[in-house]
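Figure 3 (text version): structure tokens given as input.
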């Protein structure tokens, strides 16, 4: 989590909050940590991964979704882009947990 917070400190806002929808890898990472913390603190059985699989992925038919980068077949990992013709450099992706 400290790596995520360090990354957040170096970011700047592209738009005023709540004015323009914009995808954010960092925002999604923070959301994931918040959900993981809430699930760990609340009632239930099984791991975070098991909980997400049973409550979200399975009902939505998302059988190809995974939590482990090593489980993603070659060529299936999404490539970020700065623009339509400019791929972003890969962020180092590590498995949590």
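Below: residues designed for each position.
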């Amino acid at each position: 989590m400290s790596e995520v917070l360090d990354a957040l400190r170096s970011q700047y806002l592209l738009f005023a909050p709540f004015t323009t929808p914009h995808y954010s890898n960092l925002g999604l990472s923070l959301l994931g940590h918040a959900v993981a913390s809430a699930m760990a603190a609340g009632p239930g059985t099984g791991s975070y991964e098991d909980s997400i699989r049973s409550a979200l992925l399975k009902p939505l038919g998302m059988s190809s979704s995974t939590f482990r980068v090593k489980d993603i077949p070659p060529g299936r990992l999404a490539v970020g882009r700065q623009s339509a013709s400019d791929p972003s450099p890969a962020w180092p992706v590590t498995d949590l947990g």
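The first helix runs from residue 2 to 9.
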